[in-house]
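User: Sorry, what's this?
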Amino acid sequence: MAKLSAARYGKDNIRVYKVHRDEATKTHTVIEMTVCVLLEGDIETSYTEADNSVVVATDTMKNTVYIMAKQHPVTPPELFASITASHFVETYKHIHAAHVSVIVHRWSRMNVDGTSHPHSFFRDGAETRNVQATATEGSGISVRSAIAGLLVLKSTGSQFHNFVRNEYTTLPDVYDRILSTEVDAGWTWKTFADVKAVEAGVAEFDKAYEGARNITMKTFATDDSASVQNTMYKMCQQILDLVPAVEDVDYSLPNKHYFEIDLSWHKGLKNTGKDAEVYAPQSNPNGLIKCTVSRGS
């Protein structure tokens, strides 16, 4: 006999743009987000009995996100996601959990003739600031903040050697290599009792984001990396030290390879080892290294 063991549904890719206009300075501040809402609760019959009476239409979810964005701050995104998730649980008694994810796209202010322009911006790369907030009836609000799509590279200061070697191994020990990755880093906050508790911690969210981003880039740049594993662990440790309200930190780092090209076939041209200058960037396959570091008991 079949049984519905899990179900959630919602609206994905809700695109939201909000502008704040400071009439005193005539300066505009803009935020662009992509939002996803997923609901859980007493919705089984919509699947098993074609009973739509328990369904909050996904179009209603989209409209709700727009209204929440009008009526509430959208920064920091941790607060907006928490307000929106809590709204669904509080408004619909048969909905017991609401998952709201927010992707914030980077619009940076233009500098024109040495002066910040009041209302012109440029898309500052593919990096995004991401948030996942889940409001659960009777259990509070869980929040995970993240950096995604931050592409970094250094041309030296990385090595990889003394790894397991057997009959399947062809990779040589490397004592100096290019290291490049696309950072996906997240940190999970201690559970908040309600939206008021989230509001009380608002000042910490931007501080944690900027701190985690700075730690990531500084450690990446300055660490004489013995491995991606060791470097990412150092990043996690520093973020935990910086933000006491965070329970754990996780990283997912693909190792984007750059291979030397042997050009000796062309008139003995040297382009390997200490003579390497021209490399072939590789799209795949690539290494993928992940970890989660939590506070000790």
About this structure: DSSP finds six helices and ten strands in the chain. Helices lie at 44-48, 58-71, 77-91, 195-200, 202-222, 228-242. The radius of gyration is 24 Å.
